[in-house]
Structure formats: structure tokens, C-alpha cells
Amino acid sequence: MVDKLKEKIKEKIITQYRGLLSTDSFNNTELREKIIQVAEDVLDRERNNLSSEEKIKIINELVNELTGFGPIESLFEDQAVTEIMINGPDKIYAEKGGKTELTGLRFDNEAQLMYMINKMLAPTRRHVDESFPYTEICLKDGSRVNIIIPPLALDGPAITIRKFLKEIKTVEDLLKLGTLDERMSEFFIAAIKAKINIIFSGATGVGKTTTLNVLSGHIPNEERVVTIEDTAELHLIQDHVVRLESRQSNIEGRGEITIRDLFKNSLRMRPDRIIIGEIRGSEALDMLQAICSGHKGSLVVLHANSPQDVIYRLETMILTSGIAINLEAIHRQIATAINLIVQQEQLLDGSRKITHVTQVNGLKNGQVVLEDIFIYELTGVDANNKPQGRWKATGIIPCFWPLFEKSGIKLSNRLFNKD
Question: In what order do the strands lie in the sheet with 144-148?
Fold first, then answer.
């Protein structure tokens, strides 16, 4: 009976206020009031034995569904939740403190889940259907959403939401979270200002993009910055920013614009900086060649398990792109273009830490030479099973030190004194 009542109320609201529901700029307070008004009217007219508590519950569920994201609205409001994973209508998981647990929340049916998906997609240019059953979008609050539906998802629509953490805005916030230490923060700020080319690497969900976003705040405001992403999630504070986003093909399989296409175009836009949300294909060689030809200060995200793996992944992406180039030439390009690799990891307690700050120091015997400047050393676990460790300087002074002096940046080499 409850489900039928909810459907009846929902149909009436959608019929009467379709205009309000179909735009992403509706007045939330006004819409809430109208939903409550219609719901109360229907519930009063219908003969039912519902208690006042049950009626309030129905009204709240409808308000959350039509103005927010239904059953998972409470997870969006919970600041401790960092990731939401939906495996069909009946299984909703949430990550808190690095641990994933089944929430007990559920959608009424697959139709309600698809309604939420379409609500998320409405403000974007993207879609999902049987002909194109997956996509990735960014919500208004910065949260990143991956959606995949049947027939590819066998147990119903699967949605993965990585929430945007509003409280991480400055280097001081990263310091409070224990992502890095004071010496590293001072070094990174200087490196950004000196236009050092940096790759931020790590597995999915370790905070690479967040760290890049925070450090990008130290790019001088007068510089022209071009950002290139599959799904726009970078939030730069500078005035002169051009944001580019790749485009999926349409239903006929046409119109796709790739990261590589955007990168090539960005070189004609007179950028002072280029930031790439993630490289994963043949654009890797374009990026290296662009840096070698004078486009300094590039910041890039790349999925890799270690600094050495970054080199292997770059090799693989270029070799499998169909471009005729040998391994020796690839290594020369990497050694010339990349200055620094910042490796980030998530520890067992859910904390995210920069574990390696590694410089690229030329070639030796045809291989790229990697040298750690800072490392995070695990020393054990405490009584609560929380990993313990500390950052150590290896004693290596960056080979690109002259770039700091050339840029007029004062940085003490005592930062690199061996621990």
C-alpha cells in the first residue's frame, strides 16, 4: 500500500511541477514546499491506516528523491562518507575512514534507481542507454560519478560516487590530514612556482587529483592555465583558466573528442600551463614532446603503483599507440620532459599519504634514472592497528635546483638534509 501511495503522489507531483523538476536551477525550498503540500493532500484524501510517523516518513522519502538523490541523500550529507557504491537497487555501500560497509539503505526498485541516474545526468551533456551503457560525470558539488547499466551491469545499474571533500582546500589542510610534512609542502610550492613538470601517481582513490588541485593554487594568478579532463573535477582558483572536457561519441558512434584531441588543440591556445586530469593513451607522447618544446610547468595525473611503474606505463602507452618510435627515444623524451613524480597511497587505516617524491635524473645505460628525494617509511602499527611511520629526506638535492634560482625562488637546501 505504501509503495502505491508513493507512486500516486510522485505521478501527481511530476505532472504538476514537471518544469521545476526538469531544470537543475530550481528553487529547492519552493519545490520542497510543493512536494509536501501535494503529499499531504493525497494522504489526507486516501483512505489508509497510516500513522503520522509513517506519513512523515513517506513525505521525507519523496522530498529526498525529488529534490536530492533519494535513499542516498543522507550519505551525501554525512561528511565522514568519502565514497558511495551502489550495486543495483538493493545493495548500497559507503566508505568511512577507509573502510567500506553495507549501509542497509536501498532503492524501492530499479526504476527509482534509474530515475536518480537520469537526475544526475540532466545538467550534463552525457547519457546512458543500451547502446551506450556507461559514462562518467561530475556533480555540482565536485563529486565524481561513474555509471554503468545493464546489459553490461548484470545485477542492475552500478554507480560509484567519489565525494568531493570540501574541507581540503589548502596545503595546511593536507598537513592536518597527514598527507605530507612541512618540508615537502615548502618544496612543492616552490616547484609549482618554478614550473617544474610533475606527475601525480597512485592507485584509484588515493587523493592524486585532490593533491594536484590544492598545489595548483600556487600557480601565479596572471598565468593562463588550460585544464584537460575526461570528467571536469578540477577547481582552480585562478582567474585566467580555460577548462576543457573530452566528449563521448553520440548514439551513431560519431563526435568523440579525446584527451589527445584536446591536448593538441590546447597547444594553439597560448597556455602558460597545461594540466591534464589523467593520461591513459597516445596523448602521453604528445605531452612529452610539448614539454620538450617549451611548455613547462605541466601537471599530470597518472594511475601507477610506484614511481618506476610510472615510467613503465608511459612506455606502454606510447608503444601501443601505433606511433613508430623505439624504446630508447621514449626514454630520452621522458628523461628530458619529466622532473618530478609524486606517489600517493592509501594506508590500511584509510589515511592517504605521499609515500615517494622522486626526481627523474637523466639516463644511465639507456634507462631513466629515478632518485627519491623524500620517502615515507612505515615503522609499525600501534595498539589500535593504525600504521605508524615518518617522512625522511634521502639527502639528494634536486637536479633541477638551478630552476629555483632562475625563477627567483628562495628555497633552503637544508630541506633536503638526510634524516
Answer: 99-102, 92-96, 81-87, 158-162, 144-148, 134-138
The neighbouring-strand residues paired with 162 are 83, 144
Are the CB atoms for 389 and 378 separated by under 8 Å? yes
DSSP element (H, E) containing 29: helix 28-45
Q: Which CATH architecture has domain 69-163?
A: 2-Layer Sandwich (3.30)
Which tens digit of pLDDT belongs to each residue from 255-265?
A: 788 888 998 89
DSSP-derived secondary structure for 45-66: HS-----HHHHHHHHHHHHHHH
pLDDT in tens, 137-187: 988 888 899 999 999 999 999 999 998 877 788 999 999 999 999 999 999
**Top-confidence residue, 241 or 259:** 241
pLDDT for the residue numbered 222: 94
**Cross-strand bridge partners of residue 147:** 135, 159
The superfamily (CATH) of domain 171-416 is P-loop containing nucleotide triphosphate hydrolases (3.40.50.300)
Tally of CA atoms within 13 A in the half-sphere of 57 that contains its CB: 7
Element (H, E) at 15: helix 2-16
- The domain limits of the chain are 1-67, 69-163, 171-416
